[in-house]
Design brief:
Strand content: 5-15%
Strand order of the largest sheet: 13-14-12-15-16-11-17
Distance between the termini: 81 Å
Helix content: 40-55%
Low-confidence stretches: 596-609, 631-635
Mean pLDDT: 88
Number of strands: 17
Shape: globular
Number of helices: 30
Structural class: alpha/beta
Largest sheet: 7 strands, parallel
Length: about 650
DNA sequence: CGCCACTCCTTTTTT
DNA sequence: AGGAGTGGCG
């Protein structure tokens, strides 16, 4: 067993008197270790593994915990229940499908939900009404309200400036969305939590039985738990004991309804709870923590946090300015290469970015420098258009009511638009006893190739890898003419087939990957590969690396311009940067580009707000080395000759 | 009914 | 720069 310090041991072996426990664990203080050792401690103490539930925030965290537990406990690990809140709820619901009315349901992701909202909106909003909130915005509000257990109208009245009649119309659109969802047997992410919570509230029998399942419920990242999730824990926690681990300073999911103040109020929210603290940081050197502490101390909020490094002192963090983001990206690639040539492994390096989108430039530089990397976060691989096209046919093959999938598949074909696709969708719903194949044949005359696609998917339903392969082959001519860079995209589809291999049905494959979207490069590489990690800060919570680059740390990014003007949101941005800084073990390097590279998307607010409240503005020189590099780096040496042009002029 | 050309807006973060 | 939504034409 890993050696524990006194605080950790107290937390791991805690045996009362309080029934429930919150462990406030600062960054790098051994949160995961404590959780893993707690489970191991319980199992070794005689608790049946079946009676332990471990809820994590992300799929990646669940996987990590499972791996570490397997190392500590061996095969009994398989008897533990470990998962995200969402996957746990969905597993419960899937076991009692008739009660929850989800026998033939298809799980939809955010994109599909937004498409459904677009349909609902278009029925209720004139084309000319350009100011009326967009589908994506309405979907956000709707999701947020549900995660907070608030009725949509109450939420809109309280938190938006919408006029009363628009509130009513938005609510009507949300109701239409819900109706469409039900009609099409769709389940969205929020349904998973909401259905189970409602079921537990409604049915004493279900509640009693579920409460009897677990003796111990352990929760990771408690500070990011939102009201529905709290409600679920409230419903399950008697007689089970709650064991929660979290850090208020790392709460970065307010946009999903999390409120870090809830961990402060833990004692009141959970009667009979005690709070322990872990304060010794084992991850980083004191220099790295000095910068992190400095950032947090400047907050108007009081986090009462001052991280101390158990490891002692090391290298001073650096802040490097570049003339352009190209210089910055090129320097990053070069620095990585130099370190690699000096003997460091690629995997010892992590580049953290605020937004997935802005990582593109760095990605390009890494590709050009031939540096192996894994990108984690942001738009997943499954959201690429060509991948969705293939998945649409697979989805349609097992849910005849899946309108979004049918329309997507059918309109891929020439001469098939929304009109005929709609006809097919209606016919499929109206004739539930006719096979889908026959409906297609009858509705789309002389279009055998369209029905043939369905045939391939259905015939190979039990062999996902073959089904994906066959469907890709069938659609290839269509997709190749539709998208540019086809060769690159085609490799995504090969990857898709590869991913499908370990599943026993097409349905299981599609469902798992909707719940657990995999980013492109993440899917392509196994965890054993030696690669640099390029990652969004949100995805990086819980991870660490010896050398961390916090890239694009310029004004406008921390805090992000979109959050300006709202104090709570700006403070959340501070915590995001704090999370980024505290990932580093040995070396922390902040890089940023000067703003002479004009952003093409010059939104009004960007220009005005640049620099206001910028967190790194006053970074003291005694805690970080600030250097300027690469001025004119993108300029060709010959460019200096240009100045001669005016002078010479013969 | 489908296709194409045009305009407008976008990108904060994720289960 | 590119994707989504819109409107007019074949």
């Amino acid at each position: 067993m890993a050696s524990l310090n006194a605080e950790q041991r107290l937390a791991v072996e805690y045996a009362g008197p309080a029934r429930h426990l919150l462990v406030l664990a600062g960054a790098g203080t051994g949160k995961t270790t404590t959780l893993v050792q707690r489970v191991a401690h319980l199992v070794r103490g005689g608790t049946k593994p079946e009676r332990i539930l471990l809820l994590t925030f992300s799929r990646r965290a669940a996987k990590e915990m499972r791996g570490r537990l397997a190392a500590a406990l061996g095969p009994v690990t398989d008897r533990l229940t470990i998962g995200t809140f969402h996957s746990f709820c969905w597993e419960v619901i899937s076991r009692i499908p008739k009660t929850f009315g989800v026998q033939a349901a298809t799980v939809i992701d955010r994109d599909d939900a937004t498409s459904l909202f677009t349909l609902a909106r278009s029925e209720r909003v004139e084309k000319g009404e350009r100011d009326f909130p967009k589908a994506a915005q309405i979907a956000d509000w709707h999701s947020y309200a549900r995660n907070c257990l608030l009725p949509l109208d109450a939420y809109l009245e309280k938190f938006t400036e919408l006029p009363a009649d628009w509130v009513r119309r938005v609510v009507a659109i949300a109701e239409a969305y819900t109706a469409k969802k039900r009609e099409r047997h769709y389940i969205d992410y929020d349904d998973m939590l909401e259905l189970l919570v409602r079921g537990l509230e409604k049915s004493t029998a279900l509640r009693t039985q579920m409460q009897a399942l677990y003796q111990h419920i352990l929760v990771d990242e408690m500070q990011d738990t939102n009201p529905v999730q709290w409600r679920l824990l409230d419903l399950l926690r008697e007689p089970a004991q709650l064991y929660c681990v979290g850090d208020d300073a790392q709460s970065i999911y307010a946009f999903r309804g999390a409120d870090f103040r809830n961990v402060h109020a833990f004692g009141e929210r959970v009667p009979g709870a005690a709070v322990l603290k872990l304060t010794e940081n084992y991850r980083s050197t004191q220099e790295i923590l000095d910068v992190s502490n400095w950032l947090l101390a400047r907050s108007p909020l009081n986090y009462e946090k001052e991280l101390r490094a158990a490891r002692g002192r090391g290298v001073r963090p650096r802040l490097i300015d570049f003339a352009s983001k190209f210089d910055e990206a090129a320097w990053l690639a070069n620095d990585l290469r130099v370190r690699h040539e000096a003997g460091a492994g690629w995997r010892e390096h992590m580049i953290l970015v605020r937004t997935a989108w802005s990582a593109k430039g760095i990605e390009a530089a890494l590709v050009e420098a031939d540096i192996p990397y894994t990108f984690i976060g942001g738009t997943s691989f499954l959201q690429a258009a060509h991948v969705k096209d293939v998945l649409a046919l697979l989805r349609a093959s097992f849910n005849r009511l899946d309108e979004l999938a049918w329309v997507r598949y059918l309109t891929l074909w020439p001469k098939v638009g929304d009109g005929s696709a709609g006809k097919v969708v209606r016919a499929l719903a109206a004739q539930p006893d006719t096979s889908m194949f026959d409906v297609l044949q009858k509705t789309l005359k002389n279009r055998e190739e369209i029905a043939e696609g369905l045939h391939l998917a259905t015939a190979l339903a039990a062999n996902p890898q073959a089904a994906v392969g066959a469907v890709c082959g069938h659609l290839e001519p269509l997709l190749a003419s539709r998208y540019d860079r086809w060769e690159a995209r085609k490799s995504d589809l090969r990857l898709l087939a590869q991913l499908a291999e370990k599943y026993s049905s097409v349905r299981e494959f599609v469902e798992t990957f909707t719940l657990d979207p995999v980013s492109n490069s993440e899917a392509a590489r196994s965890s054993e590969d030696d690669t640099v990690t390029l990652i969004t800060v949100h995805s990086a919570k819980g991870t660490e690396a010896p050398v961390c680059y916090v890239a694009q740390a310029q004004a406008g990014m921390y805090p992000h311009t979109r959050s300006l003007g709202d104090l709570d949101r700006e403070e959340e941005e501070r915590r995001i940067l704090y999370v980024a800084l505290t990932r580093a073990q040995n070396e922390l390097i902040l890089t940023r580009a000067g703003d002479e590279v004009v952003n093409i998307f010059q939104f009004g607010s960007t220009a005005r707000a640049l620099g206001e409240g910028y967190f790194l503005e006053e970074l003291p020189a005694d805690i970080a080395d600030v250097t300027h590099m690469g001025f004119g780096g993108t300029r060709n040496a010959l460019d200096s000759l240009r100045e001669l042009d005016d002078e010479l002029g013969w």
